[in-house]
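for the writeup, i need someone to sanity check this before i put it in the appendix. the sequnce is what the collaborator sent (i think, or maybe the updated version? ugh). structure was predicted straight from it, no edits. if anything looks off just tell me and ill rerun, i have time this weekend
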Amino acid sequence: AGRKKVLATKRLPVETLEPGWLIRLLAVITDPNIAVILMLIGVYGLVFEFTSPGAVAPGVIGTICLLLGLYALNLLPISYAGLALMLLGIIFLVVEVFNPTVVLGLGGVAAFLLGAAMLLRIEGPGFEMSWAVIGTAAILTLGLALLTGSYLWAARKNVPRVGAQAMQGLPAKVLDWQGSEGHVLARGERWRAKADEPIAVGDSVEVADVRGLVLTIRRRNVRSDGARQ
């Protein structure tokens, strides 16, 4: 101990060891910003798969990205409270897609940003969270949630009418009539009909209601120019 040793390296060959593709991949995905982006892509893919069943590709890509993101975060010294807040924020944003309330969307963004601030337990080169990346991701996620939610809401309101609903309001022509009952031609078909007002053969009427195979009809109000009021 205390003696100096000198290594003779002057004529020794220098061998450069390059990392394999797996090590290079791990070096990329263990960047906390990349890990979070992978998680978000995974969530986007799964949400798209749930809203458009049968697309397959978004579900497969989303699952792979989500697993890679979770694996990368598992290799980092993270705070599980921060991760839980980020996941809670993502859940709120996904729920916002299917049940638009705006409150859930804003709460999801707040939880996501707060979780990102708490995510890493150490500071240093290679362990910084980019607020530009996190903020952009949060805004894009909120925008996607609101856009998809509004699309689903519009689709829910425009459900095609079928059965009796599809008949209501259709025009019909009286073929024969006696008392309060008779037959009309509606949608190219002969229907049994009844009415609570005077009806005559040849009248233009419309379907007010459908009960089984019997139509309830009413007279159509027509102006002098032939247009319905």
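Residues 131-157 form the longest helix (27 residues). The mean pLDDT is 80.
thx in advance!!
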